[in-house]
Amino acid sequence: MITESQLQPENAVRRDTVPAGDYYMQIVKKGQTFRILDLEGNQAADTLFYNANHPAERYSAIDTIREQGNVYLTTGTKILSDQGNVMLEIVADTCGRHDTLGGACATESNTVRYALEKKTMHACRDSWLLAVTEHEEFGLTKRDITHNINFFMNVPITESGGLTFEDGISAPGKYVELKAAMDVIVLISNCPQLNNPCNAYNPTPVEVLVWDA
């Protein structure tokens, strides 16, 4: 559902630009709202969420999909944890839908989807692993990298139940906005993938803005 935000960028308490291939890892406090802004269009922001006070609790694709009865996320979607708790709610969305099934690119999946020589190309899992290694204060390790949300990514489901990776449906200036229902660690990999049509084969920066309650 397309829903415009009433929040103004000049009132944000934090504003970060995340280059393609880089990561964003910050705590968003309960009651705060944050926006992922697709600056140039058709970019994919692969995102994980963790309970900042108990990181073993994290985003669950299974619970989120089951409770809302839809594999796509948009305005009104409640992001659930693996303990059935609401972590965040999407409160504004100018893109329309976001993927929960496509997963994150990895060096291994690059060889399966594209070609053997693509294995050495940078991937989202590399960014996440770098993030948890450089930020030991969050208490996360490789084993905590689980299934993610692909904001702005277009992964239609075929009639036979398969997945296809198609051109993105986002555009410059599109955004998704979420309000935190608990203190959450937000871990984003701004996808560096040069092989995927979802970002028009041209990875670009995204911006993350945070507002207080």
TrEMBL record:
<dbReference type="Pfam" id="PF09347">
    <property type="entry name" value="DUF1989"/>
</dbReference>
<protein>
    <recommendedName>
        <fullName>DUF1989 domain-containing protein</fullName>
    </recommendedName>
</protein>
<feature type="domain" description="DUF1989">
    <location>
        <begin position="17"/>
        <end position="185"/>
    </location>
</feature>
<dbReference type="InterPro" id="IPR017791">
    <property type="entry name" value="UAAP2"/>
</dbReference>
<dbReference type="InterPro" id="IPR018959">
    <property type="entry name" value="DUF1989"/>
</dbReference>
